[in-house]
Amino acid sequence: VFIAQSRASGSHRDVEDEELTRIFVMIPKFYTEEDLREKFKMYGDIEYCSIIKNKTTGESKGLGYVRYLKPSQAARAIEECDRGYRAILAEPKNKSSESLEHDYYSNNARQEPRGNTLPFCGQPEFCSFEKNESRIQESVSKRLSVVSRLPLIQEQLFALFDLVPGLEYCDVQRDPHTNSGYAVIQYSTAASAIYAKYKLHGFEYPPGNRLTVIFLEDGNDSSE
């Protein structure tokens, strides 16, 4: 498990702890906080669990937080929990829950239309999960282009993009005339590609060298 600290992150200790110990997960709407705790207590000591609810109806939105005592426990939960939970590190609390919820749905919850696959459908208790209706304005695909001013190393770039589940291949190329780096990344779903672009565009790798990550046409209908 590899955790990269964003340059935009604050240096205050509390903010750092908040970023590295709190995870954000997608859950069935019938889950209680106790259900959530029961599913994630095996990965470490939980400080608290909370479920995001509709302010008007009090109904669960199918999203929740789990905060651990140690960053290593949160990292283990992300790495080892069922992929259907779509676990990611949560944004700091100073970002509004509505904004975070929108980012999460936009970047992590969209599914490929073919087969009408929904999260958790491998397990009967999850099959009632509602499909997200949000739309992403940018033309997206499952394939990404990565451009760097410095040469890219195949193994290291693969390891970086493999932090997002669903990586199918990473093909690194090098321009012998300019010494710059170029790579094509492909994921199994558009959701994974969207999330990888959201997290890694502008990421400094190696330090001082910002990666440019954009979508590449993959032959599918971009309107999907």
Automatic annotation (TrEMBL):
<dbReference type="InterPro" id="IPR034207">
    <property type="entry name" value="RBM45_RRM3"/>
</dbReference>
<dbReference type="GO" id="GO:0003723">
    <property type="term" value="F:RNA binding"/>
</dbReference>
<dbReference type="Pfam" id="PF00076">
    <property type="entry name" value="RRM_1"/>
</dbReference>
<dbReference type="InterPro" id="IPR035979">
    <property type="entry name" value="RBD_domain_sf"/>
</dbReference>
<dbReference type="InterPro" id="IPR000504">
    <property type="entry name" value="RRM_dom"/>
</dbReference>
<dbReference type="InterPro" id="IPR012677">
    <property type="entry name" value="Nucleotide-bd_a/b_plait_sf"/>
</dbReference>
<protein>
    <submittedName>
        <fullName>RBM45 protein</fullName>
    </submittedName>
</protein>
<feature type="domain" description="RRM">
    <location>
        <begin position="21"/>
        <end position="95"/>
    </location>
</feature>
<dbReference type="InterPro" id="IPR034206">
    <property type="entry name" value="RBM45_RRM2"/>
</dbReference>
<keyword id="KW-0694">RNA-binding</keyword>
